[in-house]
Amino acid sequence: MSISREDVRKVADLARLELDETLTDRLADQIGTILNYVDTLGQVNTEGVPPTHHALSLSNAFRDDVVIPSPGTDQALANAPVHENGCFIVPKIVG
Q1: To the nearest 10°, the Cα dihedral for 29, 3, 27, 31?
Q2: How far, in Å, CA of 49 to CA of 86, rounded?
Q3: Which end of the chain is less packed: N or C, by CB atoms within 10 Å?
Q4: pLDDT tens for residues 55-86?
Q5: Cα angle value 62/65/71 (rounded, 5°)
């Protein structure tokens, strides 16, 4: 399968890319090579091979969500250098 120079120009135009003639020719050749490889993969006999959605057999890589109480205001402000009325006091950094 090949892709024409006009198709490359159209996709480049949609992506707002400016391509010179040399790059257009090179991309058409490279994309054609990729499409030929994908076509070759489509011809592989996969009969009897179960479909997979991931290369590794992980069922769940995440930890369980466990609800824990949040620290209270006193504990949250315990290491703050300056605090007032339950809030952190920080220096003004925006002019």
Answers
A1: -80
A2: 61
A3: C
A4: 777 777 788 889 999 999 999 999 999 999 99
A5: 125
**CB of 80 closer than 8 Å to CB of 87:** no
**Residue 49 amino acid letter:** V
Side-chain half-sphere exposure of 6, counting CA atoms within 13 A:
0
Could you tell me the pTM of the whole model? 0.49
- Spatial distance between the Cα atoms of 8 and 28, rounded to a whole number of angstroms: 6
What distance in Å separates the CA atoms of residue 68 and residue 19, rounded to the nearest whole number? Answer: 56
Q: What is the mean pLDDT of residues 44-56?
A: 80
